[in-house]
Design goal:
By secondary structure, this protein is an alpha+beta fold. Helix content is 50%, strand content 21%. The chain is built from two helices and three strands; from the N terminus they run E-H-E-E-H. It has a three-stranded antiparallel beta sheet with strand order 1-3-2, with helices on one face. The radius of gyration is 14 Å and the shape is globular.
Amino acid sequence: MGFIATDDRRLEQFLFVHDIRFHHQTKDECGRTSWHYFDSPETRRVIQEYRMICQRRIARKEETHE
């Protein structure tokens, strides 16, 4: 089974509230944290939901600045 990694803290929190816990975390040479999740259909579904929410926020922001 593979892993999905992210260094996006907001995504990490979104996955947490959806009861998806990371398998392990790492830090790079600059001290930034990456969280690693099992690659599963549920994890992918929740990440897709997060991306759609981010896209809606960007679109709303663009609408208000026109």
